[in-house]
């Protein structure tokens, strides 16, 4: 039989995947969702909304299906969606894009990310720099691409990177600096100085910036600043976003990637052999969403901010130390004041048994060697109905008693 020792494999419990070096495991998300289902706990683990998005968007998908948009769309996406994406970047950020050469529709931000990494990096001598903790697919995709992952830690309370460390980690082998802003899991929105330093280093080392901005419309202290809008950034930045978080359609998997035409050509070369094309009837629907009036976009940011506040108040009252997020679906809290020494044990034990709430330990988002530095931090998702968050807050109060 073929030796598969170096292959990706299932974890012992069958719930997740392990990379060949055992560094990447996704068990905790499946485990926690199953735990919530089994115990009736409120699931603040996985980041998906529990309410539908705008009816204009949902209706447009139904109409598209009824109208026959049910076969393969063009590989780079239908023209009306590419035009809506280009208009969106111009309307919100003043970034002008050619919808035919500088915009590609993908199967979620996830595929955009995978295609970009597979297109841009080659082997172990190529390095990808990411901030840590990181969205779980980053380390997995870097591992699949065969490149080397280098991380720059983000630390509580504000989770901004140390710029000296960043300048030290980025070196002549760096091919990609991968930025996620607003940031999952920490809820950080990076200071302009951080983004400017990323751009400066990318120039100095001839690296490409890949930026994941899926929470672009969920910022709490003012409008989002895309990396590509900074001076000198545009020609070496690939910007990724998605309709999932903005329009509460995480199950539709319509994402996009924008940037210089020659970089996108490389991305499309890979993308065509991953999924080839994505959800035909969802594409016109997301186009309709991107053209919604400003009031919609202001409304979702305000709604998310209110939810953050309800969740944060509940966590504080329960005795957690809360690191107030400036964007995204998430809030990170420290369980150490409650006596926890290991957030993984805390999430599997006390949190679910005593409070009936499920959340994810931050150790799920860091490299094995750094787990001890984040040992007592927990990520809670705030993208749930206010009644659900209030019920979670009431339950969490039992932890302080
Ligand atoms: C949810 C999420 C994604 C995945 O987006 P899809 O469009 O569902 O693929 C990518 N990046 C971050 C940071 C996310 O939180």
Automatic annotation (TrEMBL):
CDD domains: AAT_like
Keyword tags: Aminotransferase, Pyridoxal phosphate, Transferase
Matching SUPFAM superfamilies: PLP-dependent transferases
An MF annotation (GO) of this entry: transaminase activity
Residues annotated as domain Aminotransferase class I/classII large: 41-395
Cofactor: pyridoxal 5'-phosphate
Protein name, as recorded: Aminotransferase class I/II-fold pyridoxal phosphate-dependent enzyme
Record organism: Microbacterium marinilacus
Lineage: Bacteria, Bacillati, Actinomycetota, Actinomycetes, Micrococcales
């Amino acid at each position: 039989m073929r030796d598969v020792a170096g292959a990706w494999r299932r974890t012992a419990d069958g719930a997740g995947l392990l990379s060949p070096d055992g560094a990447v495991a996704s068990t905790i998300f499946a485990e926690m969702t199953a735990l919530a289902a089994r115990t009736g706990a409120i699931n603040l683990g996985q980041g998906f909304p529990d309410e539908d998005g705008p009816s204009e968007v949902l209706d447009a998908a139904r109409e598209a299906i009824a109208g026959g948009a049910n076969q393969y769309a063009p590989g780079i996406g239908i023209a009306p969606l590419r035009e809506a994406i280009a208009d969106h970047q111009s309307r919100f950020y003043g970034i002008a894009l050619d919808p035919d050469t500088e915009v590609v529709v993908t199967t979620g931000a996830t595929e955009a990310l995978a295609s970009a990494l597979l297109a841009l990096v080659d082997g172990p001598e190529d390095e990808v720099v990411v901030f840590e903790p990181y969205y779980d697919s980053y380390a997995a995709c870097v591992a699949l691409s065969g490149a080397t992952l280098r991380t720059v830690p983000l630390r509580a309370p504000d989770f901004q990177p140390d710029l000296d460390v960043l300048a030290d980690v980025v070196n002549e082998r760096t091919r990609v600096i991968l930025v996620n802003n607003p940031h999952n899991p920490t809820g950080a929105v990076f200071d302009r100085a951080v983004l400017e330093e990323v751009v400066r280093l990318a120039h100095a080392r001839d690296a490409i910036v890949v930026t994941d901005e899926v929470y672009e419309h969920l910022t709490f202290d003012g409008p989002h600043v895309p990396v590509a809008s900074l001076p000198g950034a545009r020609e070496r930045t690939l910007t990724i976003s998605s309709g999932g978080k903005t329009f509460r359609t995480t199950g539709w998997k319509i994402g996009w990637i924008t940037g210089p035409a020659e970089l996108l050509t490389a991305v499309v070369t890979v993308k065509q052999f991953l999924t080839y094309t994505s959800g035909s009837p969802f594409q016109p629907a997301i186009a309709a969403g991107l053209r919604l009036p400003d009031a919609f976009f202001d409304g979702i940011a305000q709604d998310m901010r209110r939810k953050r506040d309800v969740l944060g108040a509940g966590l504080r009252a329960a005795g957690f130390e809360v690191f107030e997020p400036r964007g995204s679906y998430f809030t990170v809290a420290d369980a150490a004041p409650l006596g926890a020494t290991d957030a993984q044990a805390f999430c599997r034990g006390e949190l679910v048994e005593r409070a009936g709430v499920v959340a994810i330990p931050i150790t799920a988002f860091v490299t094995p060697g750094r787990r001890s530095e984040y040992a007592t931090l927990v990520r809670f998702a705030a993208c749930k109905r206010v009644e659900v968050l209030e019920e979670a807050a009431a339950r969490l109060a039992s932890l302080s008693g």
